């Protein structure tokens, strides 16, 4: 696999984590470099990461890359994507991704000197993050969303989102006892340690 992205991207991190957990060799093309960015833009009309080339297959969405990996390599020790939990897990992952996308937006606007109160739309985005995080805390059952005690798509999404938000200092998620406990528990995993943003 040839994986395009940066080591700080939470969506790229999910794919890197999966590859490590399932023993899939990959080469990371750093899109933070001029060469990597040029190559990405020549191959991917969305100009976004992650973008993956796996054998003859080209995929430019993290969810689709994940689906392809699970379909071709199996689930290993991870929770299967299929089963009665599928729709609840999909809802949880969608909510987390929405919070993460809004946090990313706020982070980059803040770098440009634009604060959340600069426009009603931005204020709504900031409030949406809080609403979603409150929902996520209610859905968590200890360190997992399901009673099987396995890491699945929802736990992967939450860990990468919270760790990125903490890394970028967007919100003080580590001050929340539920999220701090979740981060500490899952952060012990060797694959999460190896993919930590720097």
Question: Helix amount, in percent?
Answer: 55-70%
Largest sheet: 4 strands, mixed
Overall pLDDT metric: 96
Residue windows where pLDDT falls under 50 for at least 5 positions = none
Distance between the termini: 23 Å
Shape: globular
Order of helices and strands: EHEHEEHHHHHH
**Helix- and strand-based class?**
alpha+beta
**Strand numbers in spatial order across the main sheet:** 2-1-3-4
Strand content: 5-15%
Rg over alpha carbons:
17 Å
How many runs of DSSP E, i.e. beta strands? 4
Number of helical segments with 4 or more residues = 8
Write the layout of secondary structure elements.
Blueprint: E1 2-5, H1 10-22, E2 27-30, H2 34-43, E3 51-54, E4 57-59, H3 62-73, H4 86-111, H5 120-139, H6 153-167, H7 177-186, H8 190-194
Parallel strand pairs: 1-2
Antiparallel strand pairs: 1-3, 3-4
Helix pairs in contact: 1-3, 1-6, 4-5, 4-6
């Amino acid at each position: 696999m040839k994986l395009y992205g940066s080591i700080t991207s939470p969506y790229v991190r999910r794919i890197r984590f999966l590859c490590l957990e399932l023993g899939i060799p990959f080469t990371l093309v750093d899109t933070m470099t001029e060469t990597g960015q040029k190559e990405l833009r020549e191959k991917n009309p969305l100009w976004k990461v992650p973008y993956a080339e796996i054998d003859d297959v080209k995929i430019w969405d993290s969810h689709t890359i994940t689906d392809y990996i699970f379909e071709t390599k199996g689930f290993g020790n991870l929770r299967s994507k299929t089963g009665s939990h599928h729709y609840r897990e999909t809802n949880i992952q969608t909510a987390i991704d929405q919070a993460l996308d809004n946090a990313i937006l706020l982070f980059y606007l803040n770098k440009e000197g634009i604060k959340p109160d600069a426009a009603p739309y931005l204020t709504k985005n900031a409030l949406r993050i809080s609403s979603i995080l409150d929902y996520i805390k209610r859905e968590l059952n200890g360190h997992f969303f399901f009673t099987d005690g396995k890491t699945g798509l929802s736990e992967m999404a939450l860990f990468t989102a919270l760790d990125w938000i903490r890394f970028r200092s967007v919100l003080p998620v580590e001050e929340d006892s539920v999220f701090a406990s979740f981060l500490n528990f899952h952060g012990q995993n060797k694959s999460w340690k190896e993919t930590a943003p720097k």
